[in-house]
């Protein structure tokens, strides 16, 4: 079974009229056919060659026309008759051939270049007329060009053509050369048109601006109205604030005055109370400290009474002195009597003179006592000595009557005198 | 093939006063070089050609990119009046385009133009003021004019210039004073404007009222306007026959009456009746401003009393097609209907 290597030789078969409709919208590269059974024995290929019978069916798995492998990479188009036999294509064909040869041993490999002899190497050589460098990348060269900067066009020189020929005059009648009214129309149209166009442009420009400004003006009015409202409210707010502030200050003032008045009243009440008994207390204090004094009382107190007291003291002292004197007298008498009673008396007569010397003793003694007393109580000499004498007489008179009570009195007097 | 015969077709542009334009992109650079040439005729012809070209915004863009403004600035101080006139014309046409305006502001043409305010030629001055007017419509332009210190000279010029130029000056001033007003007040703008309010020309009156509007939108402006007793004049303008004048004067009142002194001055000038007529007119353009002004007056007790009788006029305004007017009418009705809630309430 020979696989068809030349796709140009396509197994064309007439379409089976029974199965396929005549006006088929598509055509096949290879008409569908059922697979024939694979012969068991290998003698078949010769028969297929000579017979040129129904061509062997190719297993689709080994059909070279079926694209295999990665469909996304660029593949060279299937080998065609007209394509130059590049190295790559040749290699692929050989590979395919080898693959098929493994499967079908009867397959004839198309005779290609025999393998190189030992020690030699085959080299690919281009045999075309014009050698060509084969590479994947196309050699590119960038080139650029640029025109020169514009030179300013010089102003058009005034061109007056040189006079040539002879001047000849011709008479031109009216209406011969041209009809002015007709000829002037296009010129006029252009003139008027251009003028009007220019004018329109200017008017449009101004109108555009006027529109803009009127728009702006309308906005400005709205803005001003809002702004005025804002200012009105601000002013209102300011007035209200001011009024509030004023009232607040007023209120504070009122409170302050109230407080002050209350304080004043309280202070006044307190002061009144405090000072209510100020005067009495002051007077009391002064009175107590002795500022207000009755002058007579004062006088009595400061002068009379001390004098009186001193006088009384003096009097008492005199009395005391008198008693002391008496005490001493009595003592003396008692002692003498004791002496006398203890010693027998020489005579009764001596009693009376002894009494008289005793009284005489007593008298000078009293006189001595008086003399001693006199510096004590100088002042009232006239009164007191009389009283003293009387007093000294009494105790003398008393002592004679009772001795023992006198002795008792002496004893009693002595502690008193000691005191 | 070139022939030594004169062509039957005339060259497309045979104006001898204009320079020949090079082809395509080369036209403007060549003109730039010609502008800088020493010869007067060349400069004039180049300027004439430039004037025509500059109507196209793309050419304006290209011209500014090429640095034409520097050469034009040097030409502004040229002795020849044609050169100056044409230069100012070119600049004024450039200022008509937005790109041109930006370019002019950026390259400081305003200060260069300041010297031309006293130019003897009328056209130069007119073009100069046109440029200022156009530039001042942009906020950056207004700032540029203010920074160049042009306000005092402009206010002075108001009294001496021609009417046309006065209109342009008023336009410039209105846009600049929206930004800042102290310089103008120092230069004594308010008395000048008060005079212009009684000018015979409608445009000048309305523009002067508009400038007063812009002045009164600032606090110090309001005080000045009250002091100069402009408010009675504005109230008299309310009865003007021209609608633009009415619009501007109501606008000026709208701002000036915010202060209490303004309001009392307006009440003294009996502003309410003319304002009411303006509000009642259905098609009046001054309706919005009039409603706002009446709102301000309604905050005064006397105003409220008067306006309570005319409440239905405002009701009818609620049907106006303009939304702003409806809103303003609502606010006005609210203010008129306000009643104090206690004896100590004032507002």
UniProtKB/TrEMBL annotation, chain B:
<dbReference type="InterPro" id="IPR016024">
    <property type="entry name" value="ARM-type_fold"/>
</dbReference>
<dbReference type="InterPro" id="IPR042856">
    <property type="entry name" value="RSP14"/>
</dbReference>
<dbReference type="InterPro" id="IPR011989">
    <property type="entry name" value="ARM-like"/>
</dbReference>
<protein>
    <submittedName>
        <fullName>Radial spoke head 14 homolog</fullName>
    </submittedName>
</protein>
